[in-house]
Amino acid sequence: MKPRHFRATRWSPQAPGCYHHRPANGPARTFMKKFLLYTLLAVPVLALLMWWLGGTPRQTQFEDLPWQVELVDEGRTIQVFGITLGETPLGELRDKLRLFPSLGLFVHPDGTQALEAYFGGVKLGPFEANLVAILDADDYLLARMIAEGTGNKPMPSGARRLDLSASGTAEALALPVRELTYVPRARYDQEIVLRRFGEPEQRLPTPDGNQYWLYPRTGTVLMLNDNGRDMLHYAPPIDFDDVRERILRGEALQPLIP
């Protein structure tokens, strides 16, 4: 005689002698699904928060961060956001950001001129910011661009803004970026700055009560603004004395293009 095989069943007290499988608890399963979903959604947010506060998981790596400044050419210049100041042409920065800049040629009341390129609302690393490149143009080229330029818009600073001609725009894209100004949307406090940039070599007050923090070795100036947006300014270390002198003369480092 073949042995009998018995299948385990669940006994129900609802009807004596009746056996059935108990259905799963519906509300409990729904709760667990929602819990797992919310947990998965919260993980990337917590990872970004930990990174900003200094507790970045090892596997999380970001590039193009404002404190990632690399010395180049034996410390004569720097590379930041992938741009080597004094070498990288504006056209390469345009290609990196995939955005065409607003170009402006400014003539100051004292006769000095500056050629600037403005990139608004760009994303560098995980952060959004405005970026302004000051271009390295000699006096002869600037004089020709002024002669060929259009418009003559007065600025609140007293400077006049001219727009470039088509040929002037093409020439500007070939010019190297001499200095960069980075205006983040995020606000910085002193604790974050000290953790990411270190102690500044010098702190200079501004007439409106803010402070410039100076880092000559990396060509970095940080302005903490209690009533507006903070700002970082980058220049080759070999030109940093000129940047410091501009600050001491009361010249703002904020770009003229908004």
How would you portray this structure in words?
The protein is globular. The chain has six helices and 13 strands. With 258 residues, the chain is an alpha+beta fold. The chain has helices at residues 26-52, 90-97, 139-148, 166-174, 190-197, 240-248, and strands spanning 70-72, 77-80, 83-84, 102-107, 113-124, 127-135, 150-154, 160-163, 177-184, 202-205, 211-215, 220-224, 231-234. Strands 7-8-4-5-6-9-13-12-11-10 form a ten-stranded antiparallel sheet, with helices on both faces. Helix content is 28%, strand content 28%. The termini are far apart.
Summarize the entry for a quick read.
With about 260 residues, the chain is α+β, with helices and mostly antiparallel strands.
Strand content: 25-35%
- Report Rg: 30 Å
Q: Which strand order do you get reading across the main beta sheet?
A: 7-8-4-5-6-9-13-12-11-10
Number of β-strand runs: 13
List keywords for this structure.
6 helices, three-stranded antiparallel sheet, 258 residues
What topology does this entry show?
Elements: H1 26-52, E1 70-72, E2 77-80, E3 83-84, H2 90-97, E4 102-107, E5 113-124, E6 127-135, H3 139-148, E7 150-154, E8 160-163, H4 166-174, E9 177-184, H5 190-197, E10 202-205, E11 211-215, E12 220-224, E13 231-234, H6 240-248
Antiparallel strand pairs: 1-2, 2-3, 4-5, 4-8, 5-6, 6-9, 7-8, 9-13, 10-11, 11-12, 12-13
